[in-house]
Write a structure and sequence with these properties.
By secondary structure, the chain is of the alpha+beta class. Helix content is about 35%, strand content about 20%. The chain has four helices and five strands, in the order αβββββααα. It has a five-stranded mixed beta sheet, with helices on both faces. A hairpin with a 2-residue loop joins strand 3 and strand 4. The longest helix has about 30 residues. It is globular, with a radius of gyration of 17 Å. The termini are far apart.
């Protein structure tokens, strides 16, 4: 197990869908597969790798939006820094699960200093953009599938919004 490279560090072509689903079930403690996931690398001013997941249903511990509890795990050079880093995603996206691994962050800095770090701010901006983009793509896919099937029932995007709309509003 220790010789295997983490999924988010591997090339996207070398990871199959079952591995993504297994990672989601492990980090979210959910028994369902994710609604959507996105694996991306950012290189430029800052360098980080990330995998984010949209759940199919609201998990029981995320129902209350007042508590700011991010479900993004922060790694630095493959080492876990924290399980719940509140400043990576805004509170309205607290249902998104995922992993972020940055090579630019220092390992020996306390979490309080990390929260005010410029690199964390940039990572947060990119993550929010990517999560919203993933939601838009998921909605577009659902709309085209539903139009093709011509179902009279609720679209899966409207079900998703019914489930997570309270957070998104």
């Amino acid at each position: 197990v220790n010789t295997q490279e983490a999924i988010w560090l591997r090339a996207m072509e070398n990871v199959n869908e079952d591995e993504y689903h297994e990672l989601y079930r492990f980090i979210s403690k959910d028994h369902l597969d994710p609604r959507a996931y996105s694996h991306f690398n950012v290189e430029g001013e800052i360098v980080f790798k990330s995998i984010r997941f949209l759940p199919k249903k609201m998990l029981f511990d995320v129902k209350d939006n007042r508590e700011k509890k991010s479900e993004i795990k922060l790694y630095v050079r493959g080492m876990l820094v924290t399980d719940h880093f509140e400043d990576l995603l805004p509170r309205y996206l607290n249902f998104v699960h995922g992993v972020v691994d940055s090579d630019d962050l220092p390992l020996d800095v306390p979490q309080e200093q990390l929260q005010q770090d410029k690199i964390i701010t940039e990572i947060s901006k990119k993550l929010v953009q990517k999560v919203l983009e993933m939601m838009r793509e998921s909605a577009a896919e659902d709309d085209s599938e539903d139009l093709d099937e011509k179902k009279e029932e609720e679209t899966s995007w409207s079900k998703f919004y019914g489930e997570f709309g309270k957070n998104l509003k």
